[in-house]
Amino acid sequence: MPKKDLADTNTFTRKPRSGWEMLKGKEPRVEAYCREYLSFLSEVKTEREAVSYLVERAARAKGLHMVGNRGKAVAFCRPGKAALSEGVRIVVAHLDSPRLDLKANPVYEDTELVMLKTHYYGGIRKYQWLARPLALHGVVVKEDGSIIRIVLGEDENEPCFTIEDLLPHLAGKAQYGKKIEDVFQGEKLNLICGSRPDLNAKEDKVKRQILALLNEKYGIVEEDFTSADLEVVPSGKAREIGFDRSLIGAYGQDDRICAWAAFSAVCDAVKPSHATVALLVDKEEIGSEGNTGAKSVFLEEVLWSFSEALKLDVNPSRVLFRSRALSGDVNGALDPEFPEVHEKANAARLGYGICITKFTGSRGKAGSSEAHAEYMGWIRSLLNRSGVPWQTGELGKVDEGGGGTVAKHLAEYGMDIVDAGPALLSMHAPFEISSKVDAYATYLAYRAFMEEA
Ligand SMILES: [Zn+2]
Known about the structure:
The protein is of the alpha/beta class. It is built from 13 helices and 19 strands.
């Protein structure tokens, strides 16, 4: 047997490669992509706003077939070279993000402040929503069916809203020493929205004044809150972070970083080998339920609509069984402040490209659709061939916690699917952190998947 020298053994070990190193010379493309991504994040704070924004943008891209679902989910499809019956390539991502929703009867007055009651949506850390500027986004549907769109609290010339927090001087008995879940309670997440009294009123002086203002500005009355989707989100634009501007800080990067990449990829995909679908769904943060979530039959409807547009007669179930998919969702990046929750060899790192997550779930992979080795092999070969920075990652140490994505709901159709998205720091916080190079690598991966698969 010939003797191996030391240089040869280098090819046996896997060393993660920095995305910055792999994309050296392509910085202008990374920057151009991230400029567009930043403006998407700044403009869009809700699933409805995401759908409107993308539908408008899609009109500029040629050859896309679009299927909408109640203004909260949408799919963009592009025909491929192979017959539709041979299966499609799907990149699925979600448009909803953790937030506070207004209750049906939100308005009340206490201590001559008017507040709006909220019920949180998705996995938030409650204390992160206190004492910061917040904005209100959403729709109110009036009794006559007319829809009032509200976005208030983003422009510096507009008022914003906030939730108050206890001063440290008096927090001793009320907060210090208690468990975090006892200190920060969902029922205390009430939005301050006014304090000027109606001097002619005998009671509810401030509430009356606020309702009069709402009627004047939007033509709504208190009962209209019962037919509204009003979401409280962090106010402000997406920002670059760091002296070197290498990171992006913004609300809603979970999962709009993948949604933007999937949308951009289907717009830019040149003559894909198979028909491709960017499927953007709602309700992932509350378990993918409902008729706009990934558990709904929306994907089948997308294929019916797409095949009709192509004048083809196919059975969506059979097409989906032969399909391949990437579940675009974020992973938790190795945290420099809490490295103990990760297992370093299998944690994703910021700046190392898109993270392929073979399985999610918790307590022994429970709840995961785990991708097969064959599919992992195919993805790995595709990414290596295409020069895409990629890494693998698990969400935390074994038995540390866990989480899930929409992957398992699409896997039910019989398609192969694996989670593929960038890693974030401060995931689910009002200001999540991503790496520019990972955002771009995610786009490159989705595009390679669509074009060359
Ligand atoms: Zn997500």
